[in-house]
DNA sequence: TCTTGACTTAGAGCTAACTCTAAATTTTAT
DNA sequence: ATAAAATTTAGAGTTAGCTCTAAGTCAAGA
Protein backbone atom coordinates (compact mmCIF):
# COMPACT_ATOMS: atom_id res chain seq x y z
CA UNK A 1 0.00 0.00 0.00
CA UNK A 2 1.32 3.40 -0.98
CA UNK A 3 -0.58 6.68 -1.00
CA UNK A 4 -4.19 7.43 -1.95
CA UNK A 5 -4.97 10.12 -4.49
CA UNK A 6 -6.08 12.43 -1.68
CA UNK A 7 -2.84 11.96 0.23
CA UNK A 8 -0.80 12.69 -2.89
CA UNK A 9 -2.95 15.72 -3.64
CA UNK A 10 -2.33 17.17 -0.20
CA UNK A 11 1.35 16.31 -0.14
CA UNK A 12 2.08 17.73 -3.59
CA UNK A 13 -0.34 20.64 -3.56
CA UNK A 14 -2.18 19.37 -6.64
CA UNK A 15 -5.96 18.79 -6.64
CA UNK A 16 -7.37 15.29 -7.01
CA UNK A 17 -9.13 16.57 -10.12
CA UNK A 18 -5.81 17.52 -11.64
CA UNK A 19 -4.20 14.21 -10.70
CA UNK A 20 -7.02 12.29 -12.39
CA UNK A 21 -6.73 14.62 -15.38
CA UNK A 22 -2.99 13.86 -15.61
CA UNK A 23 -3.76 10.17 -15.44
CA UNK A 24 -6.38 10.53 -18.18
CA UNK A 25 -3.80 12.37 -20.31
CA UNK A 26 -1.38 9.50 -19.96
CA UNK A 27 1.07 11.12 -17.55
CA UNK A 28 0.70 8.54 -14.78
CA UNK A 29 0.75 5.09 -16.40
CA UNK A 30 2.94 3.71 -13.61
CA UNK A 31 0.41 4.30 -10.85
CA UNK A 32 -0.92 0.95 -9.68
CA UNK A 33 -4.51 0.17 -8.69
CA UNK A 34 -5.70 -1.77 -5.63
CA UNK A 35 -7.84 -4.87 -6.27
CA UNK A 36 -10.95 -2.74 -5.75
CA UNK A 37 -9.82 -0.12 -8.30
CA UNK A 38 -8.40 2.69 -6.17
CA UNK A 39 -5.21 4.42 -7.31
CA UNK A 40 -2.18 3.50 -5.22
CA UNK A 41 0.77 5.88 -5.59
CA UNK A 42 4.30 4.73 -4.78
CA UNK A 43 7.23 6.94 -3.79
CA UNK A 44 8.53 6.57 -7.33
CA UNK A 45 5.20 7.81 -8.67
CA UNK A 46 5.51 10.87 -6.47
CA UNK A 47 9.06 11.46 -7.65
CA UNK A 48 7.86 11.29 -11.25
CA UNK A 49 5.08 13.69 -10.35
CA UNK A 50 7.74 16.12 -9.09
CA UNK A 51 9.48 15.87 -12.44
CA UNK A 52 6.18 16.46 -14.22
CA UNK A 53 5.67 19.58 -12.07
CA UNK A 54 9.17 20.65 -12.97
CA UNK A 55 8.61 20.25 -16.72
CA UNK A 56 5.21 21.92 -16.54
CA UNK A 57 6.56 24.75 -14.41
CA UNK A 58 9.25 25.44 -16.98
CA UNK A 59 6.68 25.77 -19.74
CA UNK A 60 6.39 22.32 -21.23
CA UNK A 61 2.96 21.34 -22.50
CA UNK A 62 1.23 18.22 -21.29
CA UNK A 63 1.39 16.54 -24.70
CA UNK A 64 5.18 16.99 -24.66
CA UNK A 65 5.42 15.66 -21.12
CA UNK A 66 3.47 12.64 -22.35
CA UNK A 67 6.16 12.06 -24.97
CA UNK A 68 8.66 11.77 -22.12
CA UNK A 69 6.42 9.26 -20.36
CA UNK A 70 6.15 7.26 -23.57
CA UNK A 71 9.96 7.21 -23.78
CA UNK A 72 10.08 5.99 -20.18
CA UNK A 73 7.78 3.13 -21.06
CA UNK A 74 9.88 2.23 -24.10
CA UNK A 75 12.91 1.53 -21.93
CA UNK A 76 16.63 1.95 -22.49
CA UNK A 77 16.40 2.51 -26.24
CA UNK A 78 15.17 6.08 -25.59
CA UNK A 79 17.82 7.20 -23.09
CA UNK A 80 19.40 9.61 -25.59
CA UNK A 81 16.05 11.24 -26.43
CA UNK A 82 15.38 11.78 -22.75
CA UNK A 83 18.81 13.33 -22.20
CA UNK A 84 18.27 15.63 -25.20
CA UNK A 85 14.87 16.64 -23.85
CA UNK A 86 16.24 17.62 -20.44
CA UNK A 87 19.08 19.54 -22.07
CA UNK A 88 16.63 21.46 -24.25
CA UNK A 89 14.49 22.15 -21.20
CA UNK A 90 17.53 23.43 -19.32
CA UNK A 91 18.24 25.96 -22.08
CA UNK A 92 14.62 27.03 -22.00
CA UNK A 93 14.84 27.46 -18.25
CA UNK A 94 17.99 29.55 -18.56
CA UNK A 95 16.16 31.87 -20.95
CA UNK A 96 13.27 32.13 -18.52
CA UNK A 97 15.62 33.02 -15.69
CA UNK A 98 17.29 35.72 -17.77
CA UNK A 99 13.87 37.14 -18.61
CA UNK A 100 12.79 37.10 -14.98
CA UNK A 101 15.95 39.00 -14.06
CA UNK A 102 15.11 41.55 -16.73
CA UNK A 103 11.61 41.85 -15.26
CA UNK A 104 13.16 42.25 -11.82
CA UNK A 105 15.24 45.20 -13.04
CA UNK A 106 12.11 46.87 -14.41
CA UNK A 107 10.11 46.22 -11.25
CA UNK A 108 12.95 47.50 -9.06
CA UNK A 109 13.01 50.62 -11.19
CA UNK A 110 9.27 51.08 -10.76
CA UNK A 111 9.52 50.61 -7.02
CA UNK A 112 12.21 53.26 -6.73
CA UNK A 113 10.21 55.53 -9.01
CA UNK A 114 7.08 55.21 -6.91
CA UNK A 115 8.96 55.52 -3.62
CA UNK A 116 10.14 58.95 -4.74
CA UNK A 117 6.71 59.75 -6.17
CA UNK A 118 4.90 58.77 -2.97
CA UNK A 119 7.43 60.71 -0.84
CA UNK A 120 6.74 63.90 -2.80
CA UNK A 121 3.11 63.34 -3.71
CA UNK A 122 3.66 63.74 -7.46
CA UNK A 123 5.35 62.08 -10.46
CA UNK A 124 7.92 64.76 -11.26
CA UNK A 125 10.51 62.18 -10.29
CA UNK A 126 12.92 62.72 -13.17
CA UNK A 127 13.34 66.40 -12.33
CA UNK A 128 14.53 65.39 -8.88
CA UNK A 129 16.35 62.14 -9.49
CA UNK A 130 18.95 61.92 -12.30
CA UNK A 131 19.79 58.33 -11.37
CA UNK A 132 16.25 57.23 -12.27
CA UNK A 133 16.53 59.08 -15.59
CA UNK A 134 19.65 57.06 -16.35
CA UNK A 135 18.03 53.78 -15.33
CA UNK A 136 14.87 54.54 -17.31
CA UNK A 137 16.97 55.07 -20.45
CA UNK A 138 18.91 51.89 -19.86
CA UNK A 139 15.77 49.80 -19.28
CA UNK A 140 13.36 51.26 -21.83
CA UNK A 141 15.36 53.43 -24.22
CA UNK A 142 15.75 52.00 -27.72
CA UNK A 143 15.90 48.30 -27.00
CA UNK A 144 16.03 47.66 -30.78
CA UNK A 145 14.70 44.14 -30.30
CA UNK A 146 13.81 43.75 -33.97
CA UNK A 147 15.87 45.42 -36.73
CA UNK A 148 14.18 48.81 -37.19
CA UNK A 149 12.06 48.80 -40.37
CA UNK A 150 10.46 51.65 -42.26
CA UNK A 151 8.99 54.21 -39.91
CA UNK A 152 5.69 55.90 -40.57
CA UNK A 153 5.60 58.66 -43.17
CA UNK A 154 5.81 61.62 -40.86
CA UNK A 155 7.90 60.03 -38.16
CA UNK A 156 8.89 62.89 -35.85
CA UNK A 157 8.49 61.89 -32.20
CA UNK A 158 5.57 63.53 -30.52
CA UNK A 159 6.13 65.60 -27.40
CA UNK A 160 5.75 63.78 -24.06
CA UNK A 161 2.06 63.25 -23.39
CA UNK A 162 -0.13 62.77 -20.35
CA UNK A 163 1.05 59.43 -19.02
CA UNK A 164 4.82 59.78 -19.15
CA UNK A 165 6.40 56.73 -17.58
CA UNK A 166 4.16 55.85 -14.73
CA UNK B 1 2.77 60.53 -35.81
CA UNK B 2 4.08 57.63 -33.70
CA UNK B 3 3.95 53.93 -34.54
CA UNK B 4 1.25 51.90 -36.25
CA UNK B 5 -0.11 48.77 -34.59
CA UNK B 6 1.88 46.61 -37.02
CA UNK B 7 5.13 48.42 -36.21
CA UNK B 8 4.53 47.99 -32.49
CA UNK B 9 3.65 44.33 -33.02
CA UNK B 10 6.91 43.65 -34.83
CA UNK B 11 9.02 45.70 -32.44
CA UNK B 12 7.59 44.14 -29.30
CA UNK B 13 7.03 40.63 -30.59
CA UNK B 14 3.29 40.75 -29.85
CA UNK B 15 0.69 40.02 -32.53
CA UNK B 16 -1.66 42.76 -33.71
CA UNK B 17 -4.50 40.53 -32.55
CA UNK B 18 -3.10 40.57 -29.05
CA UNK B 19 -2.53 44.31 -29.07
CA UNK B 20 -6.16 44.91 -30.08
CA UNK B 21 -7.24 42.42 -27.43
CA UNK B 22 -5.28 44.32 -24.80
CA UNK B 23 -6.90 47.54 -25.99
CA UNK B 24 -10.35 45.92 -25.78
CA UNK B 25 -9.53 44.78 -22.24
CA UNK B 26 -8.70 48.34 -21.23
CA UNK B 27 -4.94 47.99 -21.02
CA UNK B 28 -4.13 50.65 -23.60
CA UNK B 29 -6.37 53.63 -22.91
CA UNK B 30 -3.53 56.07 -23.56
CA UNK B 31 -3.01 55.07 -27.19
CA UNK B 32 -4.19 57.93 -29.43
CA UNK B 33 -6.04 57.57 -32.70
CA UNK B 34 -5.35 59.40 -35.97
CA UNK B 35 -8.25 61.48 -37.41
CA UNK B 36 -9.11 58.51 -39.63
CA UNK B 37 -9.29 56.11 -36.70
CA UNK B 38 -5.94 54.30 -36.83
CA UNK B 39 -4.11 53.58 -33.56
CA UNK B 40 -1.04 55.77 -33.09
CA UNK B 41 1.39 54.46 -30.45
CA UNK B 42 3.82 56.85 -28.76
CA UNK B 43 7.13 55.90 -27.11
CA UNK B 44 5.37 56.18 -23.76
CA UNK B 45 2.73 53.72 -24.93
CA UNK B 46 5.47 51.27 -25.85
CA UNK B 47 7.12 51.76 -22.47
CA UNK B 48 3.81 51.01 -20.77
CA UNK B 49 3.47 47.95 -23.00
CA UNK B 50 6.85 46.77 -21.72
CA UNK B 51 5.56 47.10 -18.17
CA UNK B 52 2.42 45.20 -19.11
CA UNK B 53 4.63 42.42 -20.54
CA UNK B 54 6.59 42.45 -17.33
CA UNK B 55 3.50 42.12 -15.13
CA UNK B 56 2.01 39.46 -17.38
CA UNK B 57 5.31 37.57 -17.54
CA UNK B 58 5.47 37.46 -13.76
CA UNK B 59 2.04 35.90 -13.55
CA UNK B 60 -0.34 38.83 -13.15
CA UNK B 61 -3.76 38.38 -14.74
CA UNK B 62 -5.07 40.88 -17.25
CA UNK B 63 -7.87 42.02 -14.95
CA UNK B 64 -5.26 42.90 -12.32
CA UNK B 65 -3.10 44.70 -14.86
CA UNK B 66 -6.22 46.69 -15.74
CA UNK B 67 -6.48 47.77 -12.11
CA UNK B 68 -3.02 49.27 -12.43
CA UNK B 69 -4.07 51.10 -15.62
CA UNK B 70 -7.13 52.44 -13.80
CA UNK B 71 -4.86 53.73 -11.02
CA UNK B 72 -2.69 55.40 -13.67
CA UNK B 73 -5.74 57.18 -15.03
CA UNK B 74 -6.79 58.29 -11.55
CA UNK B 75 -3.58 60.28 -11.10
CA UNK B 76 -1.43 61.04 -8.07
CA UNK B 77 -4.00 59.92 -5.48
CA UNK B 78 -3.17 56.27 -6.29
CA UNK B 79 0.64 56.46 -6.08
CA UNK B 80 0.74 54.39 -2.89
CA UNK B 81 -1.44 51.63 -4.37
CA UNK B 82 0.85 51.42 -7.37
CA UNK B 83 3.95 51.20 -5.17
CA UNK B 84 2.30 48.46 -3.09
CA UNK B 85 1.39 46.58 -6.25
CA UNK B 86 4.94 46.59 -7.57
CA UNK B 87 6.29 45.51 -4.19
CA UNK B 88 3.83 42.62 -4.08
CA UNK B 89 4.81 41.68 -7.61
CA UNK B 90 8.48 41.76 -6.67
CA UNK B 91 7.88 39.26 -3.87
CA UNK B 92 5.96 37.05 -6.26
CA UNK B 93 8.83 37.27 -8.72
CA UNK B 94 11.34 36.32 -6.03
CA UNK B 95 9.27 33.23 -5.28
CA UNK B 96 9.19 32.36 -8.96
CA UNK B 97 12.97 32.70 -9.22
CA UNK B 98 13.46 30.46 -6.21
CA UNK B 99 11.17 27.87 -7.78
CA UNK B 100 12.98 28.05 -11.11
CA UNK B 101 16.27 27.46 -9.30
CA UNK B 102 14.74 24.43 -7.64
CA UNK B 103 13.60 23.18 -11.05
CA UNK B 104 17.10 23.82 -12.36
CA UNK B 105 18.60 21.60 -9.66
CA UNK B 106 16.21 18.81 -10.60
CA UNK B 107 16.89 19.18 -14.33
CA UNK B 108 20.65 19.24 -13.73
CA UNK B 109 20.24 16.06 -11.74
CA UNK B 110 18.29 14.44 -14.57
CA UNK B 111 20.89 15.51 -17.12
CA UNK B 112 23.71 13.95 -15.10
CA UNK B 113 21.59 10.86 -14.53
CA UNK B 114 20.93 10.40 -18.24
CA UNK B 115 24.51 11.20 -19.23
CA UNK B 116 25.65 8.24 -17.14
CA UNK B 117 22.76 6.13 -18.37
CA UNK B 118 23.48 6.92 -22.03
CA UNK B 119 27.19 6.25 -21.51
CA UNK B 120 26.47 2.77 -20.16
CA UNK B 121 23.33 1.96 -22.10
CA UNK B 122 21.23 1.23 -19.02
CA UNK B 123 19.69 2.91 -15.96
CA UNK B 124 21.70 1.17 -13.24
CA UNK B 125 23.14 4.57 -12.49
CA UNK B 126 22.88 4.47 -8.72
CA UNK B 127 24.95 1.32 -8.51
CA UNK B 128 27.77 3.14 -10.28
CA UNK B 129 27.43 6.68 -9.04
CA UNK B 130 27.08 7.36 -5.29
CA UNK B 131 27.05 11.12 -5.87
CA UNK B 132 23.80 10.81 -7.82
CA UNK B 133 22.31 8.74 -5.01
CA UNK B 134 23.12 11.55 -2.62
CA UNK B 135 21.68 14.21 -4.91
CA UNK B 136 18.54 12.16 -5.56
CA UNK B 137 17.90 11.90 -1.83
CA UNK B 138 18.49 15.61 -1.36
CA UNK B 139 16.16 16.59 -4.21
CA UNK B 140 13.35 14.07 -3.86
CA UNK B 141 13.70 12.39 -0.50
CA UNK B 142 11.03 13.29 2.04
CA UNK B 143 10.30 16.89 1.12
CA UNK B 144 7.58 16.99 3.79
CA UNK B 145 5.86 19.90 2.08
CA UNK B 146 2.65 19.49 4.06
CA UNK B 147 2.61 18.24 7.65
CA UNK B 148 2.27 14.48 7.26
CA UNK B 149 -1.27 13.36 8.04
CA UNK B 150 -2.63 9.92 8.72
CA UNK B 151 -1.04 7.40 6.40
CA UNK B 152 -3.00 4.62 4.78
CA UNK B 153 -3.97 1.66 6.89
CA UNK B 154 -1.20 -0.66 5.83
CA UNK B 155 1.48 1.90 5.16
CA UNK B 156 4.66 -0.08 4.67
CA UNK B 157 6.64 1.19 1.71
CA UNK B 158 6.46 -1.12 -1.25
CA UNK B 159 9.66 -2.44 -2.80
CA UNK B 160 11.13 -0.43 -5.69
CA UNK B 161 9.07 -1.08 -8.80
CA UNK B 162 9.65 -0.99 -12.55
CA UNK B 163 10.14 2.68 -13.18
CA UNK B 164 12.59 3.66 -10.44
CA UNK B 165 13.66 7.25 -10.89
CA UNK B 166 13.85 7.75 -14.60
C1' DT C 1 -6.25 56.16 -60.61
C1' DC C 2 -5.71 51.68 -59.34
C1' DT C 3 -4.01 48.06 -56.69
C1' DT C 4 -2.14 46.07 -52.85
C1' DG C 5 -1.56 45.75 -48.21
C1' DA C 6 -2.42 47.50 -43.55
C1' DC C 7 -5.84 48.94 -40.69
C1' DT C 8 -10.79 49.13 -38.36
C1' DT C 9 -14.73 46.82 -35.58
C1' DA C 10 -17.73 43.25 -33.74
C1' DG C 11 -17.99 39.05 -32.61
C1' DA C 12 -17.12 34.06 -33.19
C1' DG C 13 -13.82 30.29 -32.45
C1' DC C 14 -10.01 28.03 -30.37
C1' DT C 15 -6.76 25.82 -27.02
C1' DA C 16 -4.77 24.30 -22.81
C1' DA C 17 -5.46 23.08 -18.50
C1' DC C 18 -8.09 22.34 -15.50
C1' DT C 19 -12.66 21.92 -12.63
C1' DC C 20 -16.75 20.09 -11.60
C1' DT C 21 -21.01 16.92 -11.57
C1' DA C 22 -23.46 12.68 -11.09
C1' DA C 23 -24.05 8.21 -9.84
C1' DA C 24 -21.98 4.32 -8.12
C1' DT C 25 -18.46 1.97 -5.12
C1' DT C 26 -15.13 1.59 -1.37
C1' DT C 27 -13.07 2.76 2.93
C1' DT C 28 -13.01 4.44 7.54
C1' DA C 29 -14.83 5.69 11.86
C1' DT C 30 -18.31 5.12 15.45
C1' DA D 1 -23.81 -2.36 11.25
C1' DT D 2 -24.11 1.87 9.54
C1' DA D 3 -23.09 6.54 8.49
C1' DA D 4 -19.77 9.63 6.62
C1' DA D 5 -15.98 10.47 3.84
C1' DA D 6 -13.12 9.27 -0.04
C1' DT D 7 -12.77 7.23 -4.30
C1' DT D 8 -14.20 5.71 -9.11
C1' DT D 9 -15.74 6.80 -14.08
C1' DA D 10 -17.49 9.42 -18.04
C1' DG D 11 -18.33 13.40 -19.60
C1' DA D 12 -19.81 18.29 -19.32
C1' DG D 13 -18.46 23.02 -18.08
C1' DT D 14 -15.20 26.78 -17.14
C1' DT D 15 -11.49 30.05 -17.66
C1' DA D 16 -7.84 32.88 -19.53
C1' DG D 17 -5.82 34.46 -23.23
C1' DC D 18 -5.61 34.76 -27.27
C1' DT D 19 -6.67 34.04 -32.58
C1' DC D 20 -9.20 34.51 -36.38
C1' DT D 21 -13.02 35.99 -39.76
C1' DA D 22 -15.82 39.14 -42.23
C1' DA D 23 -16.86 43.24 -44.12
C1' DG D 24 -15.47 47.44 -44.67
C1' DT D 25 -11.93 51.71 -44.57
C1' DC D 26 -7.45 53.76 -45.23
C1' DA D 27 -2.76 54.47 -47.13
C1' DA D 28 1.25 54.12 -50.16
C1' DG D 29 3.46 52.96 -54.47
C1' DA D 30 3.28 52.45 -59.75
Summarize the structure.
The structure is a homodimer of 166-residue chains. The first copy, chain A, has helices at 5-12, 16-24, 43-57, 62-74, 79-120, 125-128, 130-140; strands at 32-33, 39-40.
Describe the protein.
The structure is a homodimer of 166-residue chains. With 166 residues, the first copy, chain A, is mainly α. In chain A, 61% of the residues lie in helices and 2% in strands. Chain A contains 7 helices and 2 strands, in the order ααββααααα. Chain A has helices at 5-12, 16-24, 43-57, 62-74, 79-120, 125-128, 130-140; strands at 32-33, 39-40. In chain A, strands 1-2 form a two-stranded antiparallel ribbon. In chain A, a hairpin with a 5-residue loop joins β1 (32-33) and β2. In chain A, α5 (79-120) packs antiparallel against α7 (130-140). The longest helix of chain A is centred in the middle third of the chain and has 42 residues, at 79-120. Chain A is elongated, with a radius of gyration of 25 Å. The model of chain A is unreliable at 143-151 and 153-162 (pLDDT under 50). At the A-B interface, α1, α3 and α5 of A face α1, α3 and α5 of B. Chain A binds a DNA duplex (30 and 30 nucleotides) through α2.
List the helices and strands and how they pair.
The structure is a homodimer of 166-residue chains.
Chain A: H1 5-12, H2 16-24, E1 32-33, E2 39-40, H3 43-57, H4 62-74, H5 79-120, H6 125-128, H7 130-140
Antiparallel strand pairs in A: 1-2
Chain A binds a DNA duplex (30 and 30 nucleotides) through α2.
Amino acid sequence: MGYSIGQVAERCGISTYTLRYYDKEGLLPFVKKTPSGLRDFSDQDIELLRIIECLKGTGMQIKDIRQYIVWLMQGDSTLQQRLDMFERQKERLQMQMRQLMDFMDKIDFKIDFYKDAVAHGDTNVYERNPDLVRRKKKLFGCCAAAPAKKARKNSTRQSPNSADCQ
